[in-house]
Write a structure and sequence with these properties.
Blueprint: E1 2-8, E2 12-19, E3 24-31, H1 35-46, E4 54-58, H2 87-95, E5 99-103, H3 104-115, E6 124-129, E7 133-139, E8 142-143, H4 176-180, H5 182-189, H6 200-221, E9 225-229, H7 238-250, H8 257-260, H9 262-265, E10 266-268, H10 275-287
Parallel strand pairs: 1-4, 4-5, 6-9, 9-10
Antiparallel strand pairs: 1-2, 2-3, 6-7, 7-8
Helix pairs in contact: 1-2, 3-10, 6-7
Bound molecules: zinc ion.
Zinc ion (ZN) binds next to α4.
Length: 288
């Protein structure tokens, strides 16, 4: 049985087909242009491949309520051409197969739970820190949606005492994304994250914000593991700094086996950036 998967991003669409046990057989990447043109290219890739179902991990926000008349549509996305586009429905009609859709970060979280470092766990957070910041959340084995889906990249934070950067989120200024995304780092320091590798202050401030966010997630959601991905987290020197901030802010209040072993609690993604597409493949399996 062959399933289709799409990791849908604001700049590119990664399409793949794979088997039920997570073997990817064929893959293609298309630039994210207008929805009509991009979906035409994706449909051409999947046609003739006899997929049983399609799973999409999409940029958002996206309507994930099956009872909603706009289920599977994109909502107020900054990608204006895609705003209110019926993403799942268009592909479902063109390919005549069931379509499962979730956020890109929920798909990545699911990929790590099925194939990666969170196998066997039911309460997991996947945070991506890159051009934007977003979190996928699983609670009791189910991907969390609620009224829409978590937007945990926009939680509000206390500024670092030495940081005068005003933040760049158009909605909140100094939320996590406004202070710690790749573009926020670049604007604050006048250089890209990758070129600031040897600047300790950059990473101290970055970890101060990510650490605050993780502590808030830990206190509310009680995850068993937190996985960090995205372009900024390729700066692996961040991991010990983030763990140190988490320990400092928890300040002994919680005592669990997970928090005693932060090296295995706050970890990098484990699937070589295949977590999103493998999660989308799992979404396809689950919709059958
Ligand atoms: Zn924000």
């Amino acid at each position: 049985m062959i399933y289709g998967a799409i990791e849908a991003g604001g700049t590119k669409m990664v399409c793949a087909i794979g088997t039920a046990d997570g073997q990817l057989l064929s893959e293609a990447t298309f630039a994210t242009k207008e929805p009509a043109e991009t979906t035409r290219e994706m449909v051409a890739f999947f046609q003739e491949k006899k997929i049983k179902a399609l799973g999409i991990g999409s940029f958002g926000p996206v309507d994930l309520n099956p009872a909603s008349p706009t289920y599977g549509h994109l909502l107020e996305t900054p990608k204006l051409a895609w705003r209110y586009f019926d993403f799942a429905g268009t592909l479902q009609r063109a390919l005549a197969v069931p379509v499962g859709i979730d956020t890109d970060v929920n798909a990545a979280c699911l990929g790590e739970m099925i194939y990666g470092c969170a196998q066997g766990l039911k309460n997991v957070i996947y945070l991506t820190v890159g051009t934007g910041i977003g979190a996928g959340v699983a609670v009791d084995g189910k991907l969390l949606h609620g009224m829409l889906h978590p937007e945990a990249g926009h939680i509000l934070l206390e500024p670092h005492p030495e940081d005068s950067y005003p933040g760049n989120c158009p909605y909140h200024k100094r939320c996590l994304e406004g202070m710690a995304s790749g573009p926020a780092i670049a604007e604050r320091w006048g250089a890209k994250a990758v070129d600031l590798h040897d600047q300790p202050k950059v990473w101290e401030i970055e970890s101060y914000y990510i650490g605050q966010a993780l502590v808030n997630y830990i206190l509310v959601l009680s995850p068993e593991k937190i996985i960090l991905g995205g372009g900024v987290m390729k700066q692996t020197q961040l991991f010990p700094l983030v763990r140190r901030q988490v320990a400092r802010l928890i300040n002994g209040y919680l005592k669990t086996k997970e928090l005693k072993d932060l090296d295995n609690y706050i970890v990098p993604n484990s699937l070589k950036d295949r977590q999103g597409i493998l999660g989308a493949l799992e979404l396809a399996k689950r919709v059958c």
